[in-house]
């Protein structure tokens, strides 16, 4: 069957990463079992091919009738064909199963990032490394780490039994050689590779982080003369990854050399035992040739295992980093089917857009101070309310709760009388939308950035939203209009244009409550005043929450809440607060926010 991320088993966080990665492939266990069987047939065909060839050559040396060799000739051709065919089918089956599992894992990672908001808990370059290299470790384990050992057990057992039937001491010697080359050497390689593998995964993540940070921050790094330092950081990360890769190559060389040594000693031992058996008359010359060459061919079975074992450390480290994303605790707990309210979030009543916050408390860890400590706030339908305060006051945490990026630790947030924590997250975000202080702009066109809010919207609806956001004239003046590429993170747009683009995107979603979180945080004073004016004009008619640390545009709001250290210090209209002693009047007098 085809598994989806919802049907995949959910591994326990405390289990070994390798076992958890194998558990992800459990829905395709039959396909992998078929791949192992085909791999055993391919490897067994190779061993049998050399055995039959040895019998054919040894028999031909005695000049028998050609008819006596016809069966061996046909068998040789058949084994040659079957070896290639079964190897192809084994690769086809196992890689198909591995790629499908890998696709499921990628979907699961993306869904976790989308639904539990851990994106900002990882640096962008490190997150890219986790999504690409560390996720690919699942494929490496399944294709290279799981299939070859199982194939070796099956074909190795058959080869030992065959050689034992020819000469018991020779079969026991082959068993000992295969155990050394296929078990002892890989175990030693795995033990030696655990540390380098962990360091390799960390070094790869550090290199990716340093490279992405340098590329994205290049303009600022050049402006502040820090580019040389950033380039040195990339070079140091690359040098560390190179050193670890060299250690990994040394391990691979050790495994290959040890296997070759054991192979040679075992073949010489088998030859010595066979010669002695021939001299004693207990073994004929033809079976002797078959025994020796079968012993040589049998080591093809275990040849890949030392390299696989040496890679287990890196695969395990990659799995740990992968599950570091999948195990990230959610910031928002989705309501269960039995707890979701039956009442729609917007039912058409007069107070459907009334927002009411009571006793809201939030903190980011058990030992952390309260980011919000008992906040009460009301936004009447169609009113504009500002939450004002210094940086670190808890304002952005309030926005995160309203937009369902965090759960309250206690208290309630109600919209139209309905507690939003009992409503599906996507439904809340359909009704409450906004403009963050650092809106994300995708490296695509203006049209595609806007259509994210409503994929089926028309160009006319997009232009209407741009007009409300005071961005229509700028877009019309661009040579490509809505097809203009905005660059990575909107680099081809000014700060004010990025804010207006984010507002137009929010308006296209047709929300009922707008949350404007520090919309002027990175703008110069002249641009700031114009952007605030445009945002508040566009938000007219909505229930609007303006979260800010400065006083620009506060003469346009109906009420102001002054927040500091997670608590509401003052509440009233701008005129009332200006006439009252406190933080607001002091800020007015100082001319700062």
UniProtKB/TrEMBL annotation:
Keywords: ATP-binding, Cell membrane, Membrane, Nucleotide-binding, Transmembrane, Transmembrane helix, Transport. Gene3D superfamilies: ABC transporter type 1, transmembrane domain, P-loop containing nucleotide triphosphate hydrolases. It comes from the Bacteria. It comes from Nocardiopsis mwathae. The keyword Cell membrane applies. It is found in: Cell membrane. Belongs to the ABC transporter superfamily. Lipid exporter (TC 3.A.1.106) family. Residues 355-590 form the ABC transporter domain. The chain crosses the membrane at residues 32-58, 64-81, 150-168, 174-192, 251-273, 285-308. One of its GO terms (molecular function) is ATPase-coupled lipid transmembrane transporter activity. The keyword Disulfide bond does not apply. GO terms for biological process: cell redox homeostasis; glutathione transmembrane transport. It is a multi-pass membrane protein. Coiled coil: none annotated. GO terms for cellular component: plasma membrane. Residues 33-317 form the ABC transmembrane type-1 domain. This is ATP-binding cassette subfamily C protein CydC.
